[in-house]
Amino acid sequence: MAGPAAGRIRHPVLRAFVRAPGGLIGAGLLLGLLVLAVVGPMIWGHPATVTDLNVPYQVHSPEHPLGTDSLGRDVLARTLSATRLTLVLGLSAAAISAVVGFGIGTAVAALGPRARGIGRRAIESSLSFPPILLALFLVAIIGAGARGAVIAIGLGAAPGFARLAENFATSVGSREFIASAKATGVGRVRLMQRYLLPNMAEPLVLAGLAYVAGAIIDISGLDFLGLGVQPPAYDWGTLLTAGVQSIYVTPFAGMAPAFMIMLTGTSLVFFGEALSRALNPRLWVTGPRRDRRAERARAGRAGKAGLAGPAAARPAPATGAADPAGPVGADAVVADAVVADPAVADAVVVENLRITLPSGGGPRALVDGVSFRLRAGEVLGIVGESGSGKTLTSLAIGQLLPHPLRTTATRIELGGTELTTLPPGRLARVLGTGLAMIFQDPMSSMNPASRAGSQLTDGARRHRGLSREEARAEAVQRLGEVRIGDARRALRRYPHQFSGGMQQRIMIAMGLMARPRVLIADEPTTALDVTVQAQVLEVLRDINASEGTAIILISHNLGVINQLCDRVLVMYAGRVVEEGDRERLLADPQHPYTKALLASVPVLPGTVLPGTVLPGTVPSGTSPAAELKTIPGRPPRPDEDVPGCSFAARCPLAISRCTAERPALTAAAAGGKVACFVVTGAITGEAVR
Amino acid sequence: MSLLELDHVAVRYGAGRHALTAVDDVSLAVEAGTSIGIVGESGSGKSTLARAIVQLVPTASGRITLDGRDVTGARGSAVRHIRDRVQMVFQDPFASLNPRRTVGATLAEAVGLNDRRASGGGDRQARVTELLELVRLDPAARYRYPNEFSGGQIQRVAIARALAAGPRLLILDEVTSALDVSVQAAILNLLRDLRERLGLTYLCISHDLSVIGYLCQSAVVMYLGQLVEAAPCADLFSAPRHPYSRSLLDSVPQVRGERIRATASGDVPNPRFPPPGCRYHPRCAVGPLAQPGREACLQRDPHQDDGRAASLNGGPVTGPGSGAVGGRFAACHFPLGAP
After folding, report:
1. Residue A489 and residue A507: Cα distance in Å, rounded?
2. Is A601 in contact with B181 (Cβ distance < 8 A)?
3. Distances from the Cα of A278 to the Cαs of A16, A20, A21, A58, A133, in angstroms?
4. Does B182 touch chain A (CB under 8 A)?
5. With contact defined as beta carbons under 8 Å apart, do A27 and A21 qualify?
6. How far is B304 from chain A (nearest CA, A)?
7. pLDDT per position as a tens digit, A2-24
8. Termini Cα distance of chain B
9. How far apart are CA A82 and CA A44, in angstroms?
10. Residues 6+ apart with CB under 8 A from B122
11. Chain A contact present for B145, CB below 8 A
């Protein structure tokens, strides 16, 4: 939609509006209606009033395409020229509701706590009074007619806006940037003007615009009762009233104004939605838009080089780059930390995982060429920062990636069973009994409306066919395993009655109910206090030791990884850059990114990391002298096409080959694998260009 | 004379029986030019304390003295006095900036409100450029909206805004917790550098002991609204006196070194219903539940104890060269390592 032209628009709101779907359609329709409102009566005003008693209730004729009404007046002309009055009335009523409603609502939100409480009750009580009755009451006072109708409808709908405005004002007011603005010294009036109101804009604009159509309908209701627009004036409402009464005789007489009302409503909705999107600051982008044609050309070239689309089962590697799964010999050469028992299938095997997001310039790879295996009973850590793709990888194993993300892989196996080819029923059973997942925020992973007991037992009863008593007994046992005392009482409680640490342990217990062979924990302790984190990590360690459950632990915290894992995978920008035994990797990292990551972590004084220089003793009263190593630049965004190594732009060791070719994961010194030309070149001694 | 003095400060939410005492009788003194850390977990009251200092929440009792002037319950010119001297940087970088204003507009506003030397528009813009360069951002960033930046860059903007007022004390509330590891390192280095260059005083709040160790000279530990230990960082990390500090240290997962042990049992209690006596006793590894005979922990809150705690009384946490010996404090009936 509006390619390069949109790129030249400077104002962020306008640009976002043009890009929002339906915005231009809505704006176009509204503009048409406004033009009609202005010129309608000028062109059709007179013909609309010409009565011709020879041709009443005509359905259709050459002079009257939509027929005539009871007095022989042309329906089409009347409908078109009624646009002005209807829109004026609708907009006025909506404006009154909005201004009065928002004004009251925001004012109430700005009061002190006690006055606010009273104000809220007042708004809510006024809401319980039916608006149409309120409108009738007001019309009785003000008098029938257009003016009375507008004021009555306007005030009748005000309480609804008041409540909306009060809610939003309160929630925006509690956001942190308001507090920090106050701390900077911004005054009350300016706070309202520049901080509160603009941030309430989105939903309020949408509500206000949507109500214009509603106001038109409400006024039509009053017209029907004879209390609205009085003859000889006419709006769509009165035309609709008259037309409905003769609908079997002259169907168009009623359908025409109905269609116009519908058209107005639709255009307002389109316009309003686009406008509310445009007002969302998260979509604002300054600067010209990128050149889409050039991007498409680049994507086309990459496609021709052999990176097949989602249809291919095994994506062919681009020219020059080796197969990302590693040269065939690598596995045989490397002595891994955990010796594989050939009789037991690996807990998880992932080969050539690629996750893409379709977009305007071609599919963007968020995870590209990731392969690893999790041995039975092993704990594998996946380390990475945001954007590394570690969470997406784990979700892909659980077959949980939402549309529109697309997953392709040569293999995703759980306990030897290939997951991608299973029918849905079978897949649910295999995953339900074989895999458990825990996420960062336990509160949002649990159903707040059902007790812990039922959440614990549901899965087991479904997948393993246990009876209620059996499942409960097992649940109690699991809770004991995760060190929750008084398990029976815990079963009867709701999630919100537990602390974060306990919730997370309940989540682990829930996962264990199925006795899975694999547990995937995605940042399980990031949201927890450090003392509670220590307990949860101990629980995970116990589970691995006693049940033999294999664990994939995902974290950005290298210290946490060090607590639990046997092997570690380091991910960067959707690719695996290093893999190896935990102790060795942390003591002697090979890949430049891993090295930089380790050097950027502050440590408690007294611990020594390779590559940092600390004074022998730390004199009391001073901080350790070593500065943390930082990594210049930033990770590539998913929409940035990086042909070579994704870390090359920030890497101190980068050579020309690094920006042209993608390094494959190859065997490194002392076990482990690393994806770096410079490091592997140094090992094999081959000449590096 | 200290830059900031807190004297028996308490902050309460709600009233009567259901009141939540977020900060309970905290006394602290911060000398100019020092860097003090406040460590604690959820419910410790550390963030509330910080907000009380900048008057974002009212104090229920106690006195706050800033640069010699009593600013408790400040209004009018006293608020101005605070703002000129203390500024705060928050945890969530995106939440703390108005998403609808460009970075430049936000900074210019902060300059306009607080910097008396910048009188006209041109002056203001020059100062904005200066601030952006101070936090190592490209001055062209001023034209962009917050959502176009990464978390680390926005946090720099937030720091720049705090510096616009030319404060002497910067309160850093978990400023790196929401950032990636490598980005965190850059911000920590920047903060260290700024402190040296501008001679600032820092009050760093964090749950991450390594961050405190990196930025601060001394630290205080808070638990359920009370100050339980205060010491220079080196001493705190090598030989903590309070069992809670010990368990905090034991729980920090380090990249090298031994595996951690969970020495604090159970969860942090609900701050609304703190345990009687010493608030830490239900979780204490050397408390009455672990070692019989330590009933004192059940009966008396060490903070109210005149006897033993008096000599380690909740007095100033001192920086180097201020004269007091050691400046340590631990609110415990049976502090670790004590004879």
Report:
1. 16
2. yes
3. 5, 7, 11, 47, 37
4. yes
5. no
6. 26
7. 444 444 566 777 878 887 778 88
8. 33
9. 9
10. none
11. yes
Which neighbouring-strand residues pair with B206? B39
The reply to whether residue B114 touches residue A198, judged by beta carbons under 8 angstroms, is no
Tell me the β-bridge partners of B38. B205, B220
- The closest alpha carbon to A674, from A600, A580, A581, belongs to A580
SS (HEC) of chain B: CCCEEEEEEEEEECCHHHCEEEEEEEEEEECCCCEEEEECCCCCCHHHHHHHHCCCCCCCEEEEEECCEECCCCCCHHHHHHHHHEEEECCCCCCCCCCCCCHHHHHHHHHHHHCCCCCCHHHHHHHHHHHHHHCCCCHHHHHCCHHHCCHHHHHHHHHHHHHHCCCCEEEEECCCCCCCHHHHHHHHHHHHHHHHHHCCEEEEEECCHHHHHHHCCEEEEEECCEEEEEEEHHHHHHCCCCHHHHHHHHHCCCCCCCCCCCCCCCCCCCCCCCCCCCCCHHHCCCCCCCCCCCCHHHHCCHHHCCHHHHHCCCCCCCCCCCCCCCCCEECCCCCCCCC
pLDDT digits (tens, 9 = 90+) for B241-279: 899 998 888 888 888 777 777 777 777 787 888 888 888
Do residue A557 and residue B181 have CB atoms under 8 angstroms apart? Answer: yes
> How many interface pairs between A and B have CB atoms less than 8 angstroms apart?
228
pLDDT tens-digit profile of B33-70?
A: 899 999 998 888 898 999 898 888 888 889 999 988 88
SS (H, E, C) A332-353: HHCCCCCCCCCCCCCCEEEEEE
Task: Tell me: pLDDT of B303 over 50.
Answer: yes
Residue in A405, A402, A421 with CA at minimum distance from that of residue A354: A405
Residues of A in contact with B217 (CB under 8 A): 621-623
| Cα distances (Å, whole numbers) of residue A488 to A159, A453, A475, A480 | 48, 9, 9, 10
Tokens of A188: 């009350």
Q: How far is B321 from chain A (nearest CA, A)?
A: 9
Cα separation of B76 and B69, whole Å? 14
**A-chain residues near B172 (CB < 8 A):** none
State the smallest CA–CA distance between residue A388 and chain B in angstroms: 11
How far, in Å, CA of B52 to CA of B82, rounded? 11
**ipTM associated with this complex:** 0.83
SS3 A557: coil
Whole-number pLDDT of residue A671: 74
What are the tokens at A237?
């409402």
State phi, psi for A51 to the nearest 5 degrees. Answer: -90, 145
A568 to A285, A381, A571, B212: CA distances (angstroms)? 38, 5, 10, 28
Structure tokens at A375: 């041995």
Q: Do B210 and A623 make contact, defined as CB atoms within 8 angstroms?
A: no
This prediction has a pTM of: 0.75
Mutate to test the interface with A, among B182, B206, B268, B283 (most CBs of A within 10 A): B182
Provide the H-helix boundaries in A249-343: 251-278, 292-304, 330-333
CA distance A683 to chain B (A): 26
Decide: B115 and B200 in contact? Cβ < 8 Å: no
3-state secondary structure of A510: helix
Of the candidates A219, A223, A229, A171, the residue with the CA atom closest to the CA atom of residue A199: A171
DSSP state for residue A670 in the 8-state scheme = T
**Contact yes or no for A179 and B56 at CB 8 A:** yes
- Which runs of consecutive H residues, i.e. helices, occur in A565-662? 582-587, 592-599, 656-660
Amino acid, single-letter form, for residue A518? V
Q: Does B36 lie at the interface with A, CB-CB under 8 angstroms?
A: no
Q: Of all helices (H) and strands (E), which one includes residue A552?
A: strand A550-555
Q: Give me A557's structure tokens.
A: 């915290």
Alpha carbon A67 to its chain centroid, in Å, reads: 51
Share of chain B above pLDDT 70, in %: 91
